[in-house]
Amino acid sequence: MSDITAAASGQNPEDDRKKIAFLGTGVMGAPMARHLKRSGHNVVVFNRTAAKALAWVALNGGQAAPTPAEAAEGVDIVMMCVGNDDDVREVVFGETGALSSMAPGSILVDHTTASASLARELSAACEEQGIGFVDAPVSGGQAGAENGQLTVMCGCDDVEVYERAIPVIGVFAKQCALLGPSGSGQLAKMVNQICIAGLVQGLAEGLNFAERAGLDIAEVVGVIGKGAAQSWQMDNRAGTMAEGEFDFGFAVEWMRKDLGICLEEAERNGARLPVTAVVDQMYKQVVARGGDRWDTSSLIDLLRNA
User: Fold this and answer.
1) CA distances (Å), 78 to each of 140, 203, 302, 303, in order?
2) Which residues form the catalytic set?
3) CB count, 10 Å around CB of 95?
4) What is the helix (H) or strand (E) element at residue 200, kind and residue range?
5) CA 115, CA 247: separation in Å to the nearest integer?
6) What is the pTM of this model?
7) Is the pLDDT of residue 106 over 70?
8) Which residue, among 147, 140, 137, 139, has the nearest Cα to 110 in the 3D structure?
9) What 3-state class would DSSP assign to 267?
10) Which CA distances in Å does 199 have to 56, 229, 237, 243, 244?
């Protein structure tokens, strides 16, 4: 088996158990940390809303710390999954940030979807203190986190640091790849979100067209879903889109945050993202309708109710 497959199998010999701090116990972080705890690692969690960290401990065991610094003290690896660039800076560089107590030789792994420039900033700061760093944004949504089936896109300046992190990441991942130096993981996640935006919009338009043409959506998807139009979005979202159900999945407000990062990076590197820009504005309209917490498949609501 590959390193990532072996790690994900749940086999964790006692000698491989690590002391891990997990910062951020939201819809993604909580199940990721749970997989780490269940695989035998010693886990301490932190959340800016302390009640969430305490609730996690009540369900899973382990420990909760009142600050990132206290969570990170004496651990082998600090992992985090928070909201955005500002949140990352707060939990890493703040007055009680994790970096203030991390020991030389430890590793910081950032699973937040953030900017590539922040990843490089974190890498440089960690290097000054002899700490390894991996930017490791994830794809797979809440279901992927709950089921330990995330895809992890990594950037790291030191292959040895990445290889040390793989067995731990593999506990909740089905796929993990090192794509280049620090920032590369975040850039790959941007590619992922760009592709998803176009796919969801195309699916929304196709399903709306089918409805207005008097076709049965389930029958149409049953046929075209076996051909070139097939996608994860079609397999997992066509049915709920047809029913107008959006109270689940990856929230529109977070997709807008991610697409904003993509568009900002495109301004720097000269990439043209015309479809992404349009879809971002359509999500803005969804938010205006009160759909900030709806699943990203809610784009079809705009087409049905223009």
Assistant:
1) 21, 39, 41, 44
2) 189
3) 8
4) helix 184-212
5) 28
6) 0.94
7) yes
8) 137
9) helix
10) 35, 10, 11, 19, 18
